[in-house]
Amino acid sequence: MARIALLPQGSVSHEAALHLLGDHHQYHHFKLISEVFMAVVNKEADYAVIPIENTIEGSVNLHLDWIVHEVDLPFQAEWVYPSIQHLIGRDVEGGEDYSSINKVLSHPVAMAQCQQFLRKYLPHAIQEHVSSTSEAVRLVKVNSEENWAAIGTRLGAQTYDLNVLASEVMDHHNNYTRFILLGSQPIELAETMTHKTTILVTLPEDFPGALHQVLSAFAWRRINLSRIESRPTKRQLGNYYFYIDLQMALDSVLLPSAFAEIEALGCHVRILGTYPTYAYSTSQREEPHHSEV
Prior knowledge:
ACT_dom; lyase; ACT-like_dom_sf; phenylalanine biosynthesis; ten-stranded mixed β-sheet
């Protein structure tokens, strides 16, 4: 039984962890993402569940920067989970009269995903950002004298014994979040045919065409890049590293030779992990199953 650090109980991270890992692990919930990372660094937990990218909002730069600059924890798995948000409060389910609600609380990313609904049904309500969707639901629960509601998950509503006033209030219903599992040791998961390797490449200074040559090392070997993103190194203005996802496991003979070619150019290559990846089908949205892993 592994100890899993993640964001608060009832959050999308919690739903996503249950989906991939099941309910037979010890889940340790933290309010801040920094606490999630440090729980593994300090050996209070074995693994951390970290959201790194969202269909609508893009990369979660704060989390990527923690992975790169603050900790040294290998990627052990990646999976995709839908970000399904609901309006949660005390009233009975159903109906579209939300005139009594004067404040809506949620995480800023979740709030941004529901603006069309909020403009249509709650234009009068104050929008307040908090640290997580779960924290938003908790605040609605403990402030029973206030006419507040939260944008959050169905699991969050169940956790704090509140009602779902309106289901799936997102602007876009194809909104998914990519999660990674960080930890020092591999974890036993369901078999999958899909694997990735994630690397950081730092280019040498004053080397015209270096990025082109880096990409060429992968291109002529027919190694597919599913993602490439530049981020500041935080050492000097205008100095960047490149975060690259490769659709290939590290045990392929092609990757080590590609890395050697890149390093011969004077680039630095840091391997963040080679790991299984798990997609999410629309059929799972109706009947998610946790018993297979």
